[in-house]
């Protein structure tokens, strides 16, 4: 079963999800608790499972062991307790403190200080000392498959060059850059190109499921009206699926 990455979200169409934690007990009277699907959870969170395991060890005051994709905690702990602690980890080390987006990555700034930066809004927040040294080692080794490396590419749209950020195989557009570049459409003569240009971008990058995220930005920036969105995407769009269509009706 998949559950929202953000514990405060109840929207069934929320796209950031992870598997609910599964455990089993080992030894007499369940002396050890095995985390059966920590790898799957880690992949969805884009964090090293050993980092999550270390956090659990600190919070529970219990020793842990990781070997060959097997993760164990000394002690008899319930799945509910461990699930809530994983949510605590997400709140402290993943979720952006400004926009609540879970698409964040770690960077080292100044001397031995680690920050998480948000792909959506660019906000940076300092990581506490509890896991800082472990994250620093991962960053310095530059070998982790779990920490996203930010790169920049250029994409030409309507003969204007726009800079985006990408991570691994997924593409994300930094909200602040997106808003700045959209200023070229504020001229009334250009406003008609906003939705076609957005659609072209979504199809080109194969991220059609992101349409509602970008439409919300367009509305907040007063670049389009809700009626324009509904009319255009109902009549012309190639990127709307049933779930997105339902969300657009709520704009």
TrEMBL record:
Gene Ontology biological process terms in this record: formation of cytoplasmic translation initiation complex
Protein name: Translation initiation factor IF2/IF5 domain-containing protein
Keywords, ordered alphabetically: GTP-binding, Initiation factor, Nucleotide-binding, Protein biosynthesis
Stretch forming the signal peptide: none
GO CC term, one of those recorded: cytosol
Family statement drawn from the similarity comment of this UniProt entry: Belongs to the eIF-2-beta/eIF-5 family.
Pfam families per the UniProt record, alphabetical: eIF-5_eIF-2B (PF01873)
Tree of life domain: Eukaryota
Domain Translation initiation factor IF2/IF5 as annotated: residue spans: 13-124
Keyword Cell inner membrane: no
